[in-house]
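Dig into what follows:

_____
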Amino acid sequence: MQKNNFYLIIISLFTILLFVLQDKVQASILASCNLFITKVFPSLFPMFILTDLLIYLEMPELLAKMFGKLFRKVFHTSPYGAFMFFTSLFSGTPANAYIVKNLVEENKLTVDEANYVFSFSFFTNPLFYLTMLKTIFKDYQIIIKLFLIPYISNLIVGFILRPKQINNTRIIKNNKSKTLIETLLESIKKSMNTMLIILGTITLFFIINAIINPLNNPLISGLLEVSQGLKSLGLANLNLNVKQLYTLLFVCFGGLSIILQIKSILTDTNISLKTFNKARLIQTLIAICLLFSNP
């Protein structure tokens, strides 16, 4: 009962602030929609469709054959761990949640292995991340360093958290019960539903940031929503080392918005975020160590 009263107070206060800060709230909603239309949708929606088509066309099996032995030896995963990792490299987050969910539904990854591989396949979309780095920093050595550290730290996390036993699961041959057109149409439907969840989540955190962060503190913005945090870093008058630290903190932690998006995508699966959240903490610490060990 006390818990419900606490939530009721918070929601009531939030409702009042929506009216008091109406102009800021409306501006934040428009800003979130603009970000979604110009940055998020163009980078994620095609990747969702492409992922479904690649799975249908047996790309996981091809990548599994190419890199499966390496991943089995280094990370103790089945061959499909390689497909999960490499597609996440290019698609970023939360597209990787969509990928791992599909692989589990296709019985190519077990839930336990999905929990593990997902933990070190956490990347910001590379095109978006590189674009944001160029708006924040002018030194290309810094840009390259900050671009590579999240990838290196993810690999270290994967090695640290790898299971003791090697997964000897073999490649599974696809039983195609659907045509390519049926797969495409179903993919469009699933992808649009997922994109609506992402839009709603981004908008919610833009509103929260407008209410609790009126001075637009970059640290608060980035912990709530990565893209907004990186954008505010480009405008902030901060020490260069602080900007680098904040950048890696935002990208490795992911922000509450991304975590909620991932949870929404994985809602109807048994995939747990416990290992994922543990990995984010470890990755952030490793990334910070790499940053200051090579100033």
Remarks:
- The CA atoms of residues 24 and 214 lie 9 Å apart.
